[in-house]
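Milestone M4 deliverable, item 7.
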Amino acid sequence: MAIELSSLRVDLGIYLLKTLIAIGFLVGGFITAKIIVRILSKIEEQTVARTKLELDDLIFFSLKWGARYTVYGVAVIFAARQFGYDAFPVVTAILVVLFSHPITRIAQAFLKIAEENFVKKTETKTDDVVFPLISRVVKYTIYVFAVIIALGQLGIEVVPFVAGLGIAGLAVGFAAKDTIANIIAGIFIIVDQPFKLGDRIEVWNAPKNQASWGDVIDIGLRSTKIKTTDNIVIVIPNAEIARRDVINYTAISPQIRIRIPIGISYESDLKKAEKSLLKIAEEVEGVSKKPKPQVVVKNFGEYSVDLELRVWINNAREKRRIKSEIGSKIRYRFAEEGIEIPYPKRHIFIKEEK
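Output delivered:
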């Protein structure tokens, strides 16, 4: 009995000694982390004071953050070994997942710097769409790789898991093929740039009796938003846009040429009609002086000589207004000058039989 008590006391003493050593490792790790963080803070004060870059602050924050948790992890590993437990795989897995956060922030900071330098050299607004997309892809890619590495440290086979994800992804792909098609089309729209934010384009599926063109206000991965001149927002799936011809009125410049067809009777004075049309074009605000307006004979119809007034306008967004104003002036000016705008006529003769 005395021998058992003596053995129990020895085991208890050893356990207490190991506990004290483990606590010593934890406390030592905490103190060491504090010292390292303080040293890095002093270096940061001397270095960052000479620069005004946000990236320096982020790098030192990541260094302090990483040093602190690395020292904590090492302390936990040595403390666990006192009791015969190997905590290295678990601690390593946790650290890998934790380190993915500062790595992601640093990567996004570099992308932000690249975006600022690139945007200064370009005048397009597409950069506002491309760089946030790249930032999100980089962010989630780092997180996924961190989880895969952490699972590998824990001894979990990643290959069967990835294969399972592939089969599940295939099933989801079939179920969401329209969404995937829209996303792929959205990427091509961003790369090819058939239009950019602020461009005025034709809308082929506008509501009945509503404006059929508008300005691009948003280019997303799934859809593109267009605000028509009636202040209606039309959301068009990107796959639908990829299948259509895109009519962009402002891609090259806001100046475009419009054509206005007019028919006059064969009895009307052709030269007089041409001069009148050119004079009307000069009177309308928004019509460009260079190139000059011109009138061409398009066709000799069954009951009219078909003319076409071609004018360049300074702003494509005023196309509807200018065409309407020119049309109104032609109607009243031709009536004043005796130029007939013909239309189909039928003469009915009633013969009375006695």
